Amino acid sequence: MGIRWDAVVDLATVDIGTVPPPTPRFVIDQACGPIAVDVRLFGALASCGADRSFRLELPARATIADVFVRLGERFGEPFLALLLDETGAKRRYCRLFVGGYPVEDVNTPLSAGADPSEIEIILLVAPEGG
Amino acid sequence: MNVFSPRQFQTPARDDVWVPSSCSICYGTCSILAHRVDGVVVKIEGNPDSAVGKGRLCGKGVSGIMTHYDPNRLRYPMRRTNPKKGLYQDPGWKRISWEEALDEIAEVLRKVRADDPRKLVVQRTTTVTASRVPFHAFASAFGTPNFSVSGGGQHCGNGAHLISGIMHASWSVVPDFDYCNYAIFFGASKGHSAGHASCSNMGKAADARVRGMKMVVVDPLCNFAAAKATEWVPLRVGTDAALALGMCNVIVNDLGSYDGPYLQAKTNAPYLIGEDKLYVRHAESGKPLVWDLRLNGPRPYDAVAAADMALEGDFMVGEKPCRPAFQCLREHLRKFTPEWAERVSGIPAATVRRLGTEFATEARVGSTIVVDGVTLPYRPVAAIAFRGAQGHRNSVYNFYAVDLLNQLVGAADVVGGCLGFNPTSHGHPDTGRVSYVPSAGPDGLMVVGSWMGYHYPYPPPPPRLPKNLGLQDLFVIGMTSPFLDSVDSEELWTKFEVPYRPEVMINFGANLVMSIANKDAVAESLSRYKFIVSFDLCLTETSNFADILLPDCGYLQSLDSRSNFPFIFSLPGGLGEWCWPIRQPVLPADGEQRQFAEVLLELADRVGFRADLNAAYNAWLDLQPPYRLTGDERYSYENICDRELKNNFGAERGLDWFKSNGVIKWKKKPQEVYWRPFVDVRVPVYWEFLKPIGDKIAAIAAPRGLNVPLEYYDPLPDFLPCRSHCCDKPGFDFYGFYYRDVVHTNSFTMENPWLDEAAQLDPFSYAIAMNRAEARKRGFSDGQMVWVESETGRKVKGRLKLTEGIHPEGLGFAAMCGHWTDGQPIAKGKGVFYNDLLELDWEHASPVNINLDLCVKVRVMAAESAS
Q1: Residue B867 has pLDDT above 60, yes or no
Q2: For a Cys-Cys bond, which of B124, B404, B692, B836 suits B508, CB 3.0-4.6 Å?
Q3: Closest approach of chain A CAs to the CA of B17, in angstroms?
């Protein structure tokens, strides 16, 4: 008795198995100039009247959040509301992949490599039960 | 034992092999070995090489042969010829070719997708867990958010799973059978019947009982768990929260036996609460404040050592009076005296007091234990709940109150305590996949590391004017919705300005007419669809509403790369092994049967959205280069399964490797199983987030004429009565409820002749259980035929089975029996269709998680003709 609940584990000696963050594995090179990205929309996003495939030119140091801004400008607020909630956070069921790798943090910087990065966005079904 | 190889499978004659695969007679999905001799499956056993069942298989699993060889299986696509749809309308089925069927379905889907893809509703049974990804991917790619899992979700999922997710980062909870010494079950049968990881849990529970674990089962019925328990505590139906809150009060206010250091370090108990019931927040960062005892002042929760956080006291932050959440909880609990609990639940106050004392004493607060060389907190007690406790209008608070018992003594995801299964995975040693760990979300509260879908339990998204037919984007705590089928669905859609209506349904194996609520309500809903296509094994009461029927392959004929993933669903919790089995065909399709997953791929091709479906599969399976599906290439389902396995376990472990080996497994680490001390997350013992959600929902609903009772959105749990508890009609003196029979799965298995025989030998399976003494008072006799009538006038007829093993006010119905379709001649006319007594509307759903209320106040009358 009297042992602190959170003091029994020696974090320094135990492998706590930190999960690698699901960040894209493309090279981030923010020293370069404008960034071109190819955006591909799928599912509900592709069937609501928007172009499903297009290229965006973004300034250096652009992030995923800047892509969302451009999408809002291009397709309007109702479209953006499909991707972001009223607080501006990405909806959890909105999955976004850069170069084939999932990105959750909208502040993730984009790559300015020789080839445009491909960004895929799809809305997944949210509820499940059983 | 011969080892299976694909080459042998193709040999036309004289084979004798045991094929490793996965069961699918219930969603437990235990690993099996199917013995095939000369092209015929002659036996099914558990696969001892797998952690999922560990070689054990229940009676349902071994009976799977009879479901496979049922002569009533569908073998050809069929189209209805009778345009009239109704419960007793003969569809006039006519055999058609697959080409005709898929042409017609594709044309309908193409039109509706061009019009508004949200008009498609995708509906599936939960029994085939591996159908989750193919149907979710299809719906996502098509562009509809409208997805449902029928009664399975509405009867348990909205409460049990969401709350297990918030408090344990898992789909469900179990006692840590390896170390638990005292488990209390509230309306749950984990380890004693069907369900998640059922066979594994049965073995673990049996070993625990032999070891001496005391088990207390709180349930109106002396059910399958209670029959093996140390003590059965009968209670009034739906009053679980009363007992749990009474026990919490004993632990906190009578005994003071709570785990203060745990509450400080791992919960929001120290967070300061203002008079508005909300967190008092730091002006700059917005973070909840705690009272720092060392500095004697308020500071953000992440700036103070846990040991310095005040749990009690009254403080002022600026001009604002406040107190720690634990102090609020402590004061709140005082009203739940054992005597109050007795009045509500019928459980004697002395029993409430004793159970609270036993739980607190057995928790050994402050103790540690060394497991595999790792020193860990040791709390060998667990309180668990499942459908029985939370299948009520008070769903959230019933489950929340039960789990508070664990939280108060620190018995959450530590050795011997209440475990989520399996919230933390570090992945396979070779690849690091699949790995996930809960993380700290808004206000430091826990966000699950893995989930079955994208409707995470916490943080709930902001409520909005709904766009989904199920209204889950308004009632954001809910998952599966009753409002797709409810009698007031049109009224609700109109109130909330939903701009479209459902027109087309794809159903996979769900028997909605029987599995949700009264058949008339669901039938009315189904008859509004312009077109329904249904994948089925046999005709069901629901497939009679379909326009086209597609003959599905059974589980012995099917392939799936993830029969048991996510691990939070049906992989056993506790120490042992991680295990990834597959399902593979043991037998070929019969007639023109085709596996649903392949059919969905072909439909996407015909409609023209294969690129979307490939993208959806990439997202659902988390495929990464080089295994991602690209463009609109026409991958087979076998190819997709192969890619998923290689993606997770390396290029050398694709589908061929799994077909030969059946499973891959590796050892669990103690810090994965008992993860709570290692992960810096907190769970809410004060659900502050409920209040603003309730306020926002009410702000949307009230101007549109829907009253949302905000007492259900208070941050602290209470006992709020069901409609049944408020019924005072003379003569209506029983609480009807149903329980999941150990020999049956939902409404699915009554057609299996072996299980039907077992059920007929069981005096309860097809009967209505009534307390013997109460029956005598009313002149009822054992075996008598009776009518049971709800207060709204719905009636079912059945045979009484008198027993001492049921609460005097309870009336227990087994499973979901009472089939009437000619397509299932074994099942037809057996047992009682309890769900036909259930109302299906807003008034009978939880206002928070929209779970259906499953208890009904009824009267019992002698039927004219006895048998």
Answers
A1: no
A2: B124
A3: 34
Contact between chains at A127 and B147 (C-beta distance less than 8 A) = yes
Query: Is the confidence at residue B381, as pLDDT, over 80?
Result: yes
Is B9 a residue whose pLDDT tops 70? no
Distance CA B512, CA B155 (A): 12
Say how many CB pairs under 8 Å bridge A and B: 191
Taking the C-alpha atoms of residue B777 and residue B633, their distance in angstroms, rounded to an integer, is: 71
Q: What span, in angstroms and rounded, lies between the C-alpha atoms of B543 and B550?
A: 10
| Mutation for testing the B interface, residue in A1, A13, A39, A42 having most B CBs under 10 Å | A42
Q: Residue B126's closest chain A neighbor by CA?
A: A130
What three-state secondary structure class fits B725? Answer: helix
pTM, rounded to two decimals? 0.95
Quick check: A124 contacting B, CB < 8 Å?
A: yes
Instruction: Report CA torsion sign: B588, B594, B597, B598.
Output: positive
3-state secondary structure B331-351: HHHCCCCHHHHHHHHCCCHHH
Residue spans in chain B of domains classed CATH 2.40.40.20: 724-862
CB count, 10 Å around CB of B212?
A: 8
CB contact under 8 A, A92 and B454: yes
Question: What is the per-residue pLDDT across A40-61, written as a single tens digit (0 to 9) for each?
Answer: 999 999 876 668 999 999 998 8
**What are the chain A neighbours of B375 within 8 Å (beta carbons)?**
8-10
Provide the CB-side half-sphere exposure for B685 (13 A, CA): 34
Domain boundaries, chain A: 30-123
Degrees to nearest 5, angle at CA B62 with B59 and B66: 110
Between chains, do A122 and B266 touch, taking CB under 8 Å as contact? no
Fold of A30-123: Ubiquitin-like (UB roll) (3.10.20)
Residue B183 CA to its chain's centroid (Å): 20
pLDDT digits (tens, 9 = 90+) for B574-603: 999 999 999 999 999 999 999 999 999 999
| Helix orientation angle between B596-607 and B132-142, rounded to the nearest 10 degrees | 10
CB neighbour list of residue B296: distance below 8 Å, 6 or more residues apart = none
Of B122, B261, B453, the CB nearest to A6: B261
- pLDDT (tens digit per residue) in B748-757: 999 999 999 9
Whether omega for the bond prior to residue B581 falls within 30 degrees of 0, making it cis, is: no
Closest chain B residue to A7, measured at CA: B677
Query: Is B724-862 assigned to CATH 2.40.40.20?
Result: yes
Structure tokens at B162: 């969401």
Contact call for B265 and A6, based on CB within 8 A: yes
- One-letter amino acid identity for B313? G
Q: Which CATH number fits domain B158-424+682-688: 3.40.50.620, 3.40.50.1820, 3.40.228.10, 3.40.50.300?
A: 3.40.228.10
Q: Cα(B355)–Cα(B80) distance, rounded to whole angstroms?
A: 58
Please check the confidence at residue A1 and state whether its pLDDT lies above 50: no
Question: Which ipTM value was assigned to this complex?
Answer: 0.92
Instruction: Give the residue range(s) of CATH 3.40.228.10 domains in chain B.
Output: 158-424+682-688
Name chain B contacts of A19, Cβ cutoff 8 Å: 426, 435-437, 449
SS3 B710: helix
Q: Residue B118 in contact with residue B442, Cβ under 8 Å? A: no
Taking CA atoms, what residue in A is nearest to B28? Answer: A130
Candidates B619, B628, B677; nearest CB to A122? B619
The A residues from 44 to 83 touching B (CB cutoff 8 Å) are 44-48
The structure tokens listed for B98 are 């697959």
Kindly state the tokens that stand for B730. Answer: 């003379």
Q: Is A31 on the interface with B (CB under 8 A)?
A: no
